[in-house]
Structures are given as C-alpha cells and as structure tokens.
TrEMBL record:
Domain Peptidase S54 rhomboid stretches: 43-188
Enzyme nomenclature, EC number: 3.4.21.-
Organism whose genome encodes this protein: Asprobacillus argus
Localisation: Membrane
Stretches that traverse the bilayer: 7-24, 66-95, 107-129, 135-155, 167-188, 194-212
Protein family: Belongs to the peptidase S54 family.
Keywords annotated in UniProt: Hydrolase, Membrane, Protease, Transmembrane, Transmembrane helix
Listed name of the protein: Rhomboid family intramembrane serine protease
Cell wall biogenesis/degradation in keyword set: no
Broad class of the protein's primary localization: membrane
Top-rank EC class of the record's enzyme: hydrolase
Recorded topology in the membrane: Multi-pass membrane protein
GO terms assigned for molecular function: peptidase activity
GO biological-process terms attached to the record: proteolysis
Amino acid sequence: MIESQDKVVLLVIAATALFSYKGFNDYSFFEKYKFQITRIQNGEKFRMFTSGLLHADWMHLLFNMYALYLFGDIVVFRLGIIPFLVIYLGSLLAGSLYSLSYHKHEPYYSAIGASGAVSGIVYASILLYPEMELFLFFVPIPIKGYIFGVIYLLYSIYGMKKQLGNIGHSAHLGGAIGGFALTLVFYPRVFQENTMMVVALTIPILILLFFGKKLNV
C-alpha cells in the first residue's frame, strides 16, 4: 500500500522533471507551454495546466518537487491516490484561474512552475494534520501547521498586492484556496475534528474573495 502511494507522488515528480528539462533546453517548447495571459485569453487554455510542468531552473524545480515529496505522501496516505491527483491538478487549475483573473489586464504577464499545485497539497496536509510542526527558513522554532497556513495566506495576499519579487503570489494563493476547498470536499469530517482551525483558515480567504480588490496593503 505504502509503495503504491510513494510511486504516484514520484511519478508526478518524474513527469514534471522531464517536462521541465525539455523546457530548459528548448526555448520554443518553453514558450509554447508557459502561462501567458494573452495566449490563454485567445483560447490556449492548456497553458493553465502545462505551465505547472515548467520551471525556470533546477533550483526552482527542486524546491517545488522537494515540497511535493514531503507533503504528497501525507495526502495520499490519508485520502488515497485519486483524491491526491484531483487536489494536485485542481489546485494547479485554481492557481491559474486566480492568476488569470488577477492579471487579466496585463497582456504580457507570464508564469511557470508547480507552486500553485504544491501549495494546494501543503494546505491539504495542514487540514488533515493541523498539529504538524513546520520550520520556516531562518526561524529555528517549530510552527503549528494551521498557524503556518494563516501566515502563508496573509503573506501571499501582501506579496500579490505589492508585487514582491519574481514570484507568482497569485498562483500560490489560488492553489492554496483550491487545496483547502477540495480537501474539505474529500474529507468533510475536518469540520467536526478541527472547527476552529477551519474557521481560522477560512477568514482570510473570504476577506480576499469579497474585498480583495479594495484592499490597500
């Protein structure tokens, strides 16, 4: 059982690595499949998925795949292979859709990476195991999973508004929301098991969805 669970996560990692490697060495391939606002608006919807298989460089790829390796098995073990794949792909799509909506008036905006999908898997893991302890870079003190989730959401909102760094904060945020929602669909018992944690993670999402365009952070 555990071996089959490991294999599906490794298969996603392998497919992403091969696709990204092709993109590293083939500029036309990279340009054809990356997330690009104008191209998607003109009908190339496949880019909302294929962009999640491309990465800027080896470090970008390794960072995302390492996170998927750490958290992917948690979701597979608790929910199963099919829910894991649905959450991964659903979060990737949610990240792309949110980016498309947020940047729709920026015709040259483009993005790549599996960060939206991985964010969804991380959020699913937090919902399933809210008491897990995570370590942030340069912070030697462990942080509870649900606290990290709230911090992550708030930072993504701030980074998206301020356009911090060369990071697709909107995809991260959309992916996290997708993972959050889909996990509740597959495992609604989390409402009874960790009601306060669900509420704590829902509040910033609702604020963003209803008042996002009015926020001046």
